[in-house]
Structure formats: structure tokens, C-alpha cells
Amino acid sequence: MDGNSVSRFDLFRSDNRQWTVFMIFTTLCILAGTWWEVPFLMILPGIVLGAAWMLVDLRQVYYLLLLCIPLSIEMNFSDSLGTDFPTEPLIILLTGALVLMALHQPRRIGLTHLFDLLLVIHLAWIACSAMFAEIPLVAVKFLLAKTWYMLTFYGMSRLFLTGPKAWRIAIWCLLIPLAITHIIILVRFSAYGFSFKDVNAVVGPFNRNHVTFAALAVVFLPFGWHLFRSYRDNRFLSSLILALLAIILVGVQVSYTRAAYIALLGGIGAVFLIRRKWMVPTLVIASVAVIAFAISLVQNNRFLEFAPDYNKTISHFEFEDLLTATVKLQDISTMERVYRWVAGSYMIGERPWTGFGPNNFYPNYQVRTVRSFRTYVSDNPERSGIHNYYLMTAVEQGVPGLLIYLLLIFSVLIIGERIYHQTTDDKRKRMVLTALSSLVVIHVMQTMNDLLETDKVGSFFFISIALLANIDRLNRQSPPDEPSLPGPDPSRIASS
Questions:
Q1: CA distances for 52 relative to 6, 19, 207, angstroms
Q2: Phi and psi (nearest 5°) for 75?
Q3: CB-hemisphere CA count at 13 Å for 146?
Q4: 284 to each of 188, 262, 396, 437, 477, how far by Cα in Å?
Q5: pLDDT reading at 463 higher than 90
Q6: pLDDT digits over 300-324, tens only?
Q7: Who contacts 233 (Cβ-Cβ below 8 Å, separation ≥6)?
Q8: Least confident interval from 270-284, 321-335, 456-470
Q9: What three-state secondary structure class fits 495?
Q10: So where are the chain's domains?
């Protein structure tokens, strides 16, 4: 079967034999499902249609996944079983499609970029640490989720986001639903007078809390600005995009998320650093400062001096009071983080090489806490994590796991800066800056949160790295005006 034969296959043509067969099949399934009262039979035609759609045009399914990210809802079936709907089912489907594609055309899908190799090493160490996990089952679940996130958001992005047109479509797919959710939330929030104490009540069901709501917005904003720059010659579209970005920015403002404010400033600062080739010295200075600070706290147990007053460390219902309490170390959310960080430091000392295993922080940290750091919310009924991704990586994957992760992100930022200065095409250059800025926003957010395993933030992490790898390859293999990378057309996976 030649490459064009699949494009001529159209299930929806009324004169097509496949269409007739599909309609008969649908009718029989509905009748059988109704007769035997089996709902699955009624939705089976939809599943078949979705599978056929994937075979005919996998790219559109990828865009559908992007469209669903701002709209996804967390669905929990038990304390240990949940999913992000509809994104996670789509992620699993696309992972299966990518595996089939690799089996179908193994020579066309290879590890050709340094980022590919670093991500494989990162995933391999997670698998290694899972083998030594305190609770293996939750570690294996984490490993599976990490695998299909990486294969879908990184692998599919490597295949599809290969030129300016694809970039614009992808950003539109994210911008429109994100703006819609912000409009809905802002309208609902206005009824509460934009009160800080009510912010978590209005951001659902699309977001777990105000932090997730703000995080998605700030990691997207560099991409939204890129889209605005892409339509500077179109007054209507540029004005529309700017209006939608303004709405999203208002959402960030009223989210009252301190980490988001700082991360957004970090993303803007990254543009300044990258243009001046200051990424390496900045990373060196930041690393030295963090190591020196950590050593100063560990020496003579100096960290115990920062133990909070249990009776003064409370929740605040006015944002101004929260900021004041943060400076005085009397904010409950900040000090609860410290409570868990202290426990995490003891866990690292206990298992420095392989860690406690992926997703094993929560089941194991309570018995290793220091009571003097305890707060009113230390019972942790929501089963949340350590709220620092770097520390969590060291706790769950050991110090080698943290070093591998740092090697990955430092390499991406440093090589990304090099790609920016080697790129001559203006469109590619702007996208490199966009991806790097979004990555910096993510890394800053991760100092106070652990959101990388969520579809709202983890998707942007892998997509941004894939974009950098694609542009680096484009610079090496094609002139600036060539629209896409050479290679297989994933939408033709069923062509032979």
C-alpha cells in the first residue's frame, strides 16, 4: 500500500463501503446493548471510530489532547486510583500508537539527539529506583505514568511540532480552552468579590487548587506571547490574542499564588539572561548558593532555630496578611513545607543511593518528621507531596536520581541557549526563547511545588524540550525556510 492510499481512505464518505459496514455495525451494537442492557456495546462504535481516526490522522488526536489539557478534570475512584479525564486516556492511546509506530518503522524513530538520551537515562533511573521501592506497587504506577507522559508529550511533539504552522495550531489548541476556563472562573470569582479565602472554591473542576490554576497559566504565557508575535501583521487576530492573554494574566493575579508571581518574573528574566549568554554563570551561582545554604542549615542542626510557633502558624484569609506572615515565618503553608522538607532531609540521609522509590514520599515521611515543625495541617488528609520537586526527587530516587535530573535540566537550558544564538530564522529563534522561558517558569515553580507529574505542567515540560530538539535538528538539516523536518509522516502509520 503506497503512502497516499491512506489519505484517500475516508470513513465518512457516503459512497464508501467502510461507511456502510460501520453503520450496520453501529446499529447492531445499539440494538444488542439495549436488548442485553450492556452499556459498553452502545459505546463500542465510538471506540472503533476513535481508533479509525487515530489510524487515519494521528496528528489530529495529538491536537485534541492539547485542547483537553486546560479542560481536564481529576477523577478519583479510590485513595490510590485516579485519572485525569479525558487527557490520561488520550495519553495512553497515543503512547500505544507511538509504540506501534516504532515497531512498524523502527529505523525512522531513533534516539538521535542528546535530549533523547538524557530523558532515557532519567527514565531508566526511575525504573531502577522503583526496583528498590519501599512500596513497589505505587512506584510501578508512577513509572508507568512517567513513561506514557514522556512518550506522548515528548515523543509525539518531536514528530508533530516541526515547523511554525504546527506550532501555531498547537498554541491555539491550548489558548482557546485555557481562556474559556479563565473567563468562567473569573465570572464565578467575581460573585465572591475576588476574596483570597474563596479562591480554591472557584477554580474547580478544571483545577485541583489555586496553585495548579496559576501554574498552568504562567507556563503557557510565553507560548501565548509567541502566538501574539506571530500575528503582528493581522490586527484582528493579534488584538484577540492580546485580549485573551490579558484575561489569563488577570487570572494569575487573582490566584494569589506567590510561586506563580515569582516564576513569571523568572521567565521574563530568563529572556534577558539568554540573550546575553548568561545562563551558565547564573546556574553556577544559583547552585553554589543553594548548596551553601543547605550546608549552613545542616551544620550543628541550625535548621532547628527556624521551628515555628505552633499557635502563631495559622491560615490567613487576607492576602496581605499572608505575605506578612510569610516574611515572619508564620504562614501555615510555608511552614508546612518546611515540616515536610525536614522529614525529607532525614529520608535522604537514610537512603541516599536509591531513595524510597517513586511516589513513596507520602507513605513514609510522617514517622520521620520533627515535631517542633508541626502545623495545624500536618495530618495531610489530601495526601499531598513534599512541595519541592528537587527535594522530592532526591527522597524518592536518591541523590543519583537528583543529579541525573539536574543534568537533564541544566543541559536543556545551556544547550537551549546555544541553539538560540545559532538560530538565524526569526520564527525558530522566537520559539527557542519561548520554550526556554516556559522551562524556567516551570523550574522556578518546582522549588515550592511538585507539579511535574500533572498534565497541566508536565506536558509543557516535555513539549518545550521536544521543541528545542526539533529546532536544533532543523538548524542542522534544513534551511530556515523549510517548513518541517524530514522523516516519517505519523499520520500514515497504517499505510502498509
A1: 11, 12, 31
A2: -120, 120
A3: 20
A4: 44, 20, 25, 18, 32
A5: yes
A6: 666 666 665 544 544 544 444 444 5
A7: none
A8: 321-335
A9: coil
A10: 1-56, 57-496
